[in-house]
Structures are given as C-alpha cells and as structure tokens.
C-alpha cells in the first residue's frame, strides 16, 4: 500500500492538470443510484404538475417529445398529441421511466433530471455526497498549483450542483472546467482530444484522469495518464 501511495504521489507531481470522474471516484455510486435517480422517479409527476407553466419545463417537454419521435430505442410509445397536462404528464412520466430503465444518456433526459435536482438541492431535499479524502486531496492539489477539472457522464449542471451543495459545503471553487458526454463517451479517444483542445492543448502526459472505468475500457484511447480507483 505504501508503494502504491508513493507511486500515486509521483504521478500527481508530474502532471499539471488533474481530471476527476464523479460516480465511484469522488462520490459513492450508491448516492447516484439510491438517491439521485430514485428522486427523479418519485417526484417527476409532482414536479411536472407544479412547474408545467414555466418556460423551463415547456422546453424540457418539447425536448423529450422530439427525442421520443427521433429515437425508437427509447422503448416507449409515441407521446400523445394532446397538450392537456392531465393527458401528457402521465405519458411523460412513463417515457422518463423507460429512458432511465434503458440507462439512456440523451440530452433531453439529462436536462430534465438536472432541473429537478437543482430544485432538490436548493430546497435541501438532496445533499451531494463527496468522500472525505477527496476534500483533503482537492485542498492539497489546489495548494500545489494543480488545475482541477471534472469529466463525468452526468451533465455539467448536475456536476456543479453536486459540488456546490455537497455534504462538505461548497466545493465548486476548486474546479476550473467541467465536461460531460457532450464531448463524447469516456471510452472514445476523440473525447479526450476535444477536452485537451478546450484546455488549450496541454501535453497529454501532463493530464491525469482519475476514474472508476476499468482499464480494459481505457486501453490505448489516448496518451493521458489514467488512475483507476
């Protein structure tokens, strides 16, 4: 264990940018699976009813409607053409549940989830989980002059909500940049090229990505350094 800790410290010393995954890395997988996602399933009907006339929800409903019509893989029937909330809300609830069952990562679903979580964080219904040792590491890395960024399958909005409303208080200030799957999947080399470009093209070997992805999924995708935790 001591040797592994020394190796990790040496890797950190050699890089300029540390990029963190979230689920299974900074944050317990159980928080995502047992709190965030169940909250959406349990509260979506009430949320839609309470926010139906807001522009934000109108935009979310329009995006979901387009997604269902474009993607047969959503696994649901087409949404009703009726604009009545009494008719459309139950159909939307079923649509979202089917997308979540399929582990869909489409932007329309991510946006709605993010808006629901935003409300939940603000009213205290949810508090973001972050491991104790992550907070200590963020403090040390920032003090050492490292640039800290996030790359997660969760939307940028969801990332910022989690860190700004964490169980350790507001941690958002530690991070300079956030990336989600809008840049591509974490197993695709092109995703990392896009991120490096957004970070003003640092040498790949100067970037360390800490993630819970298995090594086989990451093998050969880029020249970045990976730590699988």
TrEMBL record:
Keywords, sorted A to Z: Amino-acid biosynthesis, Hydrolase, Methionine biosynthesis
Q: Name one GO biological process term.
A: L-methionine salvage from methylthioadenosine
- Name the InterPro entries for this protein: Enolase-ppase_E1 (IPR023943), HAD-like_sf (IPR036412), HAD_sf (IPR023214)
GO MF term (any one): acireductone synthase activity
Please tell me the species this chain comes from: Cherax quadricarinatus (Australian red claw crayfish)
Q: Tell me the protein's name.
A: Enolase-phosphatase E1
């Amino acid at each position: 264990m001591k040797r592994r800790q020394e190796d990790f410290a040496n890797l950190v010393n050699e890089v300029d940018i540390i990029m963190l995954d979230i689920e299974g890395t900074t944050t317990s997988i159980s928080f995502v699976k047992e709190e965030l996602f169940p909250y959406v399933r349990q509260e979506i009907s009430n949320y839609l009813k309470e926010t139906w006339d807001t522009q934000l929800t109108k935009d979310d409903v329009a995006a979901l409607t387009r997604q269902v019509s474009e993607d047969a893989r959503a696994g649901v029937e087409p949404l009703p053409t009726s604009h009545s909330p009494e008719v459309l809300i139950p159909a939307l609830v079923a649509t979202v549940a089917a997308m979540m069952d399929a582990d869909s990562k489409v932007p329309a679903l991510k946006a709605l989830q993010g808006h629901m979580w935003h409300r939940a964080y603000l009213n205290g219904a949810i508090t973001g989980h972050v491991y104790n040792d992550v907070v200590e590491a963020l403090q040390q890395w920032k003090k050492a002059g490292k640039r800290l960024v996030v790359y997660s399958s969760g939307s940028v909005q969801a990332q910022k909500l989690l860190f700004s409303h964490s169980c350790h208080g507001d941690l958002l200030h530690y991070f300079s940049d956030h990336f989600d799957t809008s840049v591509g999947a974490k197993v695709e080399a092109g995703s990392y090229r896009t991120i490096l470009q957004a970070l003003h093209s640092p040498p790949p070997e100067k970037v360390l990505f800490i993630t819970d992805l298995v090594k086989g999924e990451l093998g050969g995708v880029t020249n970045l350094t990976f730590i699988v935790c």
